[in-house]
């Protein structure tokens, strides 16, 4: 880990230090994904089976996973695993249930009633990546809010073979259909539909560069599907003062670093002592990790910043806008009003990032790559849309008419004005 | 207006009838906008002045409008106009004020506290198109929620010369900086910043094909800026039964048609009589409009659909997903629970679309082009982002630890597990 002293840097150097590495874009990824998407649009299920054989090396008996297979998964799991998944489900459901919007109704002027109503997005598709280990936690993070929002149809794609843990959670979340599909072909299938795969309105979930590019492509086509948010490598920033425990900080930095070689890991502290202790603790703990090689690569580009004060550390964090922000200071709760541009914030010694990754209740799908400035932590709102409703009484229209008429005149929109005056005239003639 | 009977159409024909016309994309627009964006990124203010002279035919004294000029605008406006704008401001503020989120705090398990906090987006840019008449209503629809959300810095771009009505409303909404800028150059300036123009986090507002393309380009660049929503031509769908007033319906259809030749106008009714009456009334009222030519072009592609019942009319509307949905039936209020995929809904005889366009309180920036399935009516939420916060006590971590450890094991994430166990071990050794 590289250590820099913030005050010793010029403004340009400061910006450069916090600059995220560019995401490899590659025209070849764009073209490869575009070919996959076209092929799914053209040949439907046939293309899906061929692409799955090509990319995942298996040809599943059927694209859709049968209910029998889903039930069987549950029988193979240990009771301990099911209890853990059930507990996580319960906590996540509790926190997302609390996000249910209150209906809003306002009488802005007498007889002018304006409302905001929230409706679930009808059909949603969840993407769960494959890889070296299954990710049942991501199924929970997407499946629970979809269920609580009340989406009519929820489908899930994951590359085969799909792990028992994923199928078990899919059932917990009452997911309607599960498909043996990964990569760009899964995204294309959900965006456009095939004979077997349901077309969805919006697609959620993480993935590799191909999945990310496929999501970008289908979301740029109005016949395709919406997506949750832009994706980037996972990242953590820790703000710590001299009261923090260096072992805890090191463990938190490493739990981010093991995600992937491109993980971003930053510690900002006014304490040189803590900086030194953490550097040592990271090296010590690293030796014991099964994913040591991955973590080591991530650490190569990671950073310790010596700030002048906790206040300056906060300013640095707000500028960087981390996905995960861990605050290990004397009174972390007091700092919350000052914290901005973070996906999820973890306060104090006993709130490691991994509790939020799995089971505390908050969502682990968060904006990365500086998108925390404008995007939100995934929540119920992302599985819903807000519509407004208005109803005026005849008197309400009478009261509002002069305002509308004057403004329509200013904007030169004659018919807008007439839609009001024709009604007022009819009211007057009825009097 | 073309009239079709829904039941006489095949499923394919039904889909074709409701298909929106493709938006002209044109590689030449993409390239032209890309050149403008690059030039602003490279040459900053110098490029802005040159591009403004080229595209708007004027070279303003300065890019930024002075406070003196803004104050002077107010003096030139009639009292009647100011009163109308003030009233609209008041209603819109009241409705958006009511959207302020309640802070959310949940203890999911003893000692495990999860929160959701909402923060304003720091800096936002509002784009107000030029054209034949000024659009102060759009300034209200963007400026009021930005102000109420508490955005730190709000800037506005509009092509010069900027109308007095726009400057007056900019002042009402306490907008920080107003720039004499239109088109792709305005979007590029706000996305990347120049010596004069503040870089913003997110850009809002309507515009022509060039503005839309510029918004798309800067939102696809993580160094650029976020945007409000994808844009398409404005549209209305009216559901009416035999109790509706054909003159009112015709007036509403025409007020949509006058927006532009590409406006989408649809009436769905189970009453053949109403369909005939509306056809006549549209022709009659059309003759009296100042924007008759524009409305006539829009009407050429507009549609009356004869449905079997109001229930079927609702299904058609939900499938189409209109930006504006007007319901003129016997008991419109009773139908609300059945209505879905609409930007804003207008109930009954006395709620023409133009009240919502201007002054009732709801926002007139709405998803179009079928994006109502996944996007929301613009509101306070679009000027804010949600972050989650969590704080566990030592006991809370003890209770949650087995769940996290089991799940981290299943996902093969060793360091995630160790971030928990290292803390539990320290707690145990302190006992």
Automatic annotation (TrEMBL), chains A, B:
Q: What is its EC number?
A: 1.1.1.23
- Binding-site residues, NAD(+): 127, 185, 208
Q: Which UniProt keywords apply?
A: Amino-acid biosynthesis, Histidine biosynthesis, Metal-binding, NAD, Oxidoreductase, Zinc
The entry's Zn(2+)-binding residues are: 256, 259, 357, 416
This protein's pathway: Amino-acid biosynthesis; L-histidine biosynthesis; L-histidine from 5-phospho-alpha-D-ribose 1-diphosphate: step 9/9
InterPro entries, A to Z: Ald_DH/histidinol_DH, Histidinol_DH_CS, Histidinol_DH_monofunct, Hstdl_DH
Entry GO MF terms: histidinol dehydrogenase activity; NAD binding; zinc ion binding
Q: Name one Pfam family in it.
A: Histidinol_dh
Active-site positions on this chain: 323 (proton acceptor), 324 (proton acceptor)
Cofactor(s) needed by this chain: Zn(2+)
Q: Which GO terms describe its cellular component?
A: cytosol
Coiled coil region boundaries: none
Amino acids binding substrate: 234, 256, 259, 324, 357, 411, 416
The record's similarity note reads:
Belongs to the histidinol dehydrogenase family.
What role is this protein assigned? Answer: Catalyzes the sequential NAD-dependent oxidations of L-histidinol to L-histidinaldehyde and then to L-histidine.
This chain's protein is named Histidinol dehydrogenase
- Organism equals Vibrio inusitatus NBRC 102082
* Gene behind the chain: hisD
């Amino acid at each position: 880990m590289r250590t820099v002293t913030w005050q010793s840097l010029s403004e340009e150097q400061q910006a450069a230090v916090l600059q995220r590495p560019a995401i490899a874009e590659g025209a070849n990824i764009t073209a490869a994904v575009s070919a996959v998407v076209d092929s799914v649009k053209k040949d439907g299920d046939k293309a899906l089976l061929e692409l799955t054989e090509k990319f995942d090396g298996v040809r599943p008996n059927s694209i859709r996973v049968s209910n029998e297979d889903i039930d069987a998964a549950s029988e193979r799991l240990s009771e301990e695993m099911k209890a853990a998944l059930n507990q996580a489900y319960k906590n996540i459901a509790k926190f997302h249930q609390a996000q249910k919007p209150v209906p809003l109704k306002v009488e802005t002027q007498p007889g002018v009633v304006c409302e905001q109503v929230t409706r679930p997005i009808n059909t949603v598709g969840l993407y769960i990546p494959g890889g070296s280990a299954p990710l049942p936690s991501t199924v929970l993070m997407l499946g629970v809010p979809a269920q609580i929002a009340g989406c009519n149809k929820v489908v899930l794609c994951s590359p085969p073979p799909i792990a028992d843990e994923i199928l078990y959670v899919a059932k917990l979340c009452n997911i309607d259909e599960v498909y043996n599909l990964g990569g760009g072909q899964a995204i294309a299938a959900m965006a456009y539909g095939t004979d077997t795969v349901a077309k969805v309105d919006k697609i959620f979930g993480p993935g590799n560069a191909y999945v990310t590019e496929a999501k970008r492509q289908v979301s740029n086509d109005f016949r395709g599907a919406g997506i949750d948010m832009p994706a980037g490598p996972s990242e953590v920033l820790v703000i710590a003062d001299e009261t923090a425990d260096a072992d805890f900080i090191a463990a938190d930095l490493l739990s981010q670093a093991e995600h992937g070689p491109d993980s971003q890991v930053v510690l900002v502290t006014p304490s040189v002592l803590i900086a030194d202790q953490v550097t040592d603790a990271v090296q010590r703990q690293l030796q014991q990790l099964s994913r040591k090689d991955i973590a080591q690569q991530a650490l190569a580009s990671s950073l310790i910043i010596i700030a002048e004060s906790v206040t300056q550390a906060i300013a640095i964090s707000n500028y960087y806008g981390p996905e995960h922000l861990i605050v290990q200071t004397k009174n972390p709760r007091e700092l919350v009003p000052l914290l901005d541009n973070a996906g999820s914030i973890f306060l104090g010694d006993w709130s490691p990032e991994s509790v939020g990754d799995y089971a505390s209740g908050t969502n682990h799908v968060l904006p990365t790559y500086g998108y925390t400035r404008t995007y939100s932590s995934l929540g119920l709102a992302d599985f819903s849309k807000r519509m407004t409703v208005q109803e005026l009484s005849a008197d309400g229209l009478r009261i509002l008419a002069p305002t509308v008429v004057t403004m329509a005149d200013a904007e030169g929109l004659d018919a807008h004005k007439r839609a009001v005056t024709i009604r007022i005239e009819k009211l007057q003639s009825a009097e």
